[in-house]
Amino acid sequence: MIWAMVGAGIGRQLVSKKIELLLREWGQFHIKHMDHADEWGENTLYRAGVMGGRVQSKGEGHKILAPDMPSHLQKVDILLRRLPLMEAMAVKLWYCAPLRQDGQPYTMAQLACKARVGLRSFEDNLRVGRNQLIRLGL
After folding, report:
1. Do 104 and 97 form a contact (C-beta atoms < 8 A)?
2. pTM of the prediction?
3. Coil, strand or helix: which one is 50?
4. Contacting residues for 92 by C-beta, under 8 A, at least 6 apart
């Protein structure tokens, strides 16, 4: 009986580590392609009409197209849309936040502040969000 409990604990740890690695990869994909095109094939500068330091008429300039997201990362996006707002926001902020201007990652408290919730609430939302993603089949 003890062996079964230990084995289940190790299995849970392996699943948890696998999910953590997948979520980190998903977050890095979003960070890397943050400046790429949106769903209409336009980046922010193109949409604003400013390319190369001069205003251009609509239709001029280059569009930066984002590469296709791998299917295993698309699954994360799809399942994340099924989470309640606060849990989804916590997961997105934790895994997709770019580095601060000083090159350091944001702390949990700083991300909680960005989400306009207390630290304890942010931690709970992140934990619940991860658990729900696992239950949804991530």
Report:
1. no
2. 0.68
3. strand
4. 80
